[in-house]
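Narrative of accomplishments. A recurring question from our advisory board has been how the design workflow behaves on a single, concrete structure rather than in aggregate. To address it, we present the structure tokens for one chain from the evaluation set, followed by the sequence designed for it. No filtering or post-editing was applied between the two.
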């Protein structure tokens, strides 16, 4: 069986680290609101710092080691989806490169929400004591703190349906080969030819 590399080891490790941090952030952020009391503050901000480092790694790695243009959305992709609605949604006229249109849209939404959560989370660190700094809750006005908290909470709420969507599509039978590629790193030659345009995504071929 011949295979094609889809995700490098560094990409896969970082993906699962990001996922673990996100679950930890959501649990430590929302369980206390539901009345489950535990020492959540330190767990929350440490998970946030690791998540921030993971996102920074992803950005640097994508810019230096990957084809970051593969996440660009071309006008033709929207035209292709719209035209397919008049016929069979299953037979698109154009095969994608590495990522489908909705994968790109999903990625960009997650990226925006992550940046909102990270920026507001870093600002909120100023309100807690840590081994590295002393809290200063008066660095912003009460009104400014209100905006920061609303944006942070909003991004957190957005991640709940986003993660549910991600898990749903990851376990669908026709998408399981993508999930496998995030674990093992590869897709088969048959999957590559059936779902991707080689002219748009030329990936390494590997032996059995």
């Amino acid at each position: 069986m011949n295979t094609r590399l889809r995700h490098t080891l560094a990409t896969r490790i970082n993906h699962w680290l990001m996922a673990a941090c996100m679950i930890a952030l959501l649990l430590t952020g929302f369980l206390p609101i539901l009345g489950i009391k535990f020492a959540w503050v330190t767990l929350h901000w440490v998970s946030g710092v690791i998540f921030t480092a993971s996102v920074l790694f992803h950005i640097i790695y994508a810019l230096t080691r990957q084809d970051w243009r593969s996440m660009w959305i071309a006008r033709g992709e929207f035209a292709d989806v719209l035209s397919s609605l008049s016929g069979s949604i299953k037979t698109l006229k154009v095969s994608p490169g590495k990522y489908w249109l909705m994968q790109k849209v999903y990625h960009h939404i997650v990226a925006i929400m992550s940046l909102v959560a990270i920026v507001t989370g870093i600002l909120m660190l100023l309100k807690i004591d840590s081994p590295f700094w002393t809290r200063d809750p008066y660095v912003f006005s009460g009104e400014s703190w209100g905006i920061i908290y609303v944006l942070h909470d909003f991004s957190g709420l957005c991640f709940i349906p986003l993660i549910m969507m991600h898990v749903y599509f990851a376990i669908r039978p026709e998408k399981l080969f993508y999930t496998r590629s995030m674990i093992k790193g590869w897709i088969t030659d048959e999957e590559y030819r059936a779902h991707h345009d080689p002219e748009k995504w030329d990936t390494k071929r590997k032996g059995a």
